[in-house]
Amino acid sequence: MTPITEVEGRRVALSNLEKVLYPETGFTKGELLHYYATTATVLLPHLRDRAVSLLRYPDGPDGQQFFTKNVPPGTPDWVTTAEVPRSSADSPARMVVVQDLPSLVWAANLVTEFHTHQWLVRSPEEADRLVFDLDPGPPANVVHCCEVALWLRERLAADGIEAYPKTAGSKGLHLLAAVRGSSSERTSEYAKALAVEAERAMPRLVVHRMTRSLRPGKVFVDWSQNAARKTTATPYTLRARRAPLVSAPVTWEEVAECRSPAQLEFRADDIAPRLQDRGDLLAPLLDPGSAAPLP
Fold it and tell me: What are the residues whose beta carbons fall under 8 Å from the beta carbon of 89, sequence distance 6 or more?
């Protein structure tokens, strides 16, 4: 019989709590649910008012993985949903919006990564985030991403934009900044221009095009994540990788001092101590007053 738990007055069905999702560490579905529930205080503000794409991996990282963008069948009626515009040729999609702890626990029970757009459902025409996804092509690694991130930090600062780093939770690094007053199209154009600048400044290290043949040994500065239709891994989400790795906020000091990929690899059980010591390093992104206009 499927266990039922009550979360803030909502009845949530939980399933297969003993199922091992990450064989390398023995991390179970119950532990995944515990992680999301205990991290909710910092995770929910980064999810709230944003439509989510759920990357589901119900049999663990080695099993089938698939994105759920539309509201899944069986979604409780108390889970918030919103119509989300797509291309002009398509009708709007209806997607989940994780607004509270019961919705988070329900979604986590599907075994998911959480991915969000760079805009809020109430104003999809305006981007409120700028994102760079720094993706290393082997033998490059996150250490090389850190070098690129530091360059981008200074370049963004020159335009009055403050960037904040987090690990991708896989092999790269993400930079996020709060912005205002621009469309996703304009934000994408700006991000692409900076990616091109970075390639010119560091031609042996950076590539701004996705072409696979160009990427070995370089860091791909993926500016295209700013497109209105695209989503990026949410801060604090678990990732479907070999171990329960987290897309974890990091300090600029950690980025500058990184000499080994292991230094920027954080698992689920690393997050609570970091939060106790540092709080949410990405909290400034949630302050509307911190958003900067694009030049």
Answer: none
CB-neighbour burial class of residue 57 (10 A; exposed 0-12, middle 13-18, buried 19+): buried
Give me the DSSP letters along 230-259: --EEPTT-B-SSSS-BB--B--HHHHHH--
Separation of alpha carbons 7 and 16, rounded Å: 18
Q: What pLDDT is stored for residue 88 in this prediction? A: 62
The one-letter code for the residue type at 171 is: K
At residue 207, what are phi and psi to the nearest 5 degrees?
-135, 140
Grouping H, G, I as helix, E, B as strand and the rest as coil, residue 144 is helix
pTM given for the model: 0.95
Q: Where are the beta strands (DSSP E) in the chain?
A: 4-7, 10-13, 20-22, 27-28, 51-56, 66-68, 81-84, 93-97, 112-116, 127-136, 164-167, 173-182, 206-207, 219-222, 232-233, 292-293
Per-residue confidence band for 226, with pLDDT thresholds at 50, 70 and 90: very high
Encoded tokens for 291: 């958003």
